[in-house]
Specification:
There is one protein chain. The protein has 272 residues and is of the alpha+beta class. It has one domain (43-71, 81-268). Helices cover 19% and strands 16% of the residues. It is built from 5 helices and 6 strands, in the order αααααββββββ. It has helices at 39-42, 50-63, 91-102, 134-144, 157-166, and strands at 172-175, 187-191, 211-220, 223-231, 234-241, 262-268. Strands 1-6-2-3-4-5 form a 6-stranded antiparallel sheet. α3 (91-102) packs across α4. The longest helix is centred in the N-terminal third of the chain and has 14 residues, at 50-63. It is globular.
């Protein structure tokens, strides 16, 4: 704990020829050099691509043991505190990397882990809802894949949902579930809790709201395979029903998945 109060050492010199990534207009923080991001992602060394986003999301899913859960949140059993994956050795540190890399410098969440706050203090497992990391997971995947300043990184899903809906996110476009069939690498989102009744017509909202987003990793006839963070305290896959046209809703706008209130599809502009 004493070490946490010590002066932070200077970062190592950048490799020759590498320019630090700086936050652009799509980000919600001030323009600062981002030393949290590895050069291969901040340059980036390869184009931002669907294949990389899908591969990174699936890699993280395998790291957590490849869990699959189709049950809606209210019907899932709550694991004992000592059995939560997010607090297991090797995994709580990985979640810390989601925060450190996925968030912009200056956010207090950058120092969080799967079981520590920004001061390195262990929080009780029953308080983990105050340290939800599902948006940090999405931000991490997009950052490591090379989205650069075009993605509005945030600890809140609603930040980039609203940015896409308002046209402020250069790399995201928001579509109603009945208007666009998501492809691998796109993101599907819903409101939860008090925001579960939100629909596409309500976007963008005037303030932040609780939500959840998953990354599409496979699109097959009648079903999407999606991966999201902080589902069962892990990176978890679920399968989402779609119509024959690949869309989450029918032509009347009725969501085909009776478990989750999907409200928006975020098409990621990988062409850029």
């Amino acid at each position: 704990m004493l070490a946490g109060c010590a002066a932070r050492p200077l970062p190592p010199p950048k490799p020759a020829g590498v320019t630090p990534r700086t936050q652009g207009p799509a980000s919600h923080g001030p323009n600062v050099a981002d030393d949290h991001v590895p050069p291969f992602a901040s340059a980036p060394w390869e184009p931002f691509s669907r294949a990389d986003v899908v591969a990174i999301a699936q890699r993280e899913w395998r790291l957590f043991g490849s869990p699959v859960d189709h049950d809606p949140p209210e019907t899932r059993p709550v694991p004992p505190p000592d059995q939560k994956p997010e607090r297991e050795p090797g995994l709580w540190q990985r979640i810390g990397e989601y925060w450190w890399i996925g968030q912009d410098p200056g956010e207090r969440e950058v120092a969080w882990t799967g079981m520590h706050d920004e001061n390195g203090t262990l929080f009780e497992a029953g308080r983990d809802s105050g340290f939800a990391w599902s948006a940090a997971f999405i931000s991490y995947v997009m950052r490591v894949a090379g989205a650069g300043p075009d993605f509005p990184y945030s600890p809140n899903h609603s930040t980039y949902i609203n940015a896409a809906a308002s046209g402020a996110a250069r790399v995201l476009r928001a579509y109603a579930p009945a208007d666009y069939a998501p492809l691998p690498g796109d993101v599907i989102c819903m409101g939860r809790g008090r925001a579960a009744g939100l629909t596409f017509r309500d976007l963008p909202t005037a303030s932040l709201f609780p939500g959840h987003c998953d990354i599409v990793v496979q699109a097959a006839a009648g079903s999407l395979s999606v991966v999201g963070g902080n589902v069962d305290d892990a990176v978890t896959m679920k399968h989402v029903p779609v119509g024959q046209d690949g869309k989450l809703a029918d032509e009347r706008g009725h969501i085909l998945d009776g478990r989750y209130p999907w409200m928006v599809v975020l098409k990621v502009d990988y062409v850029r």
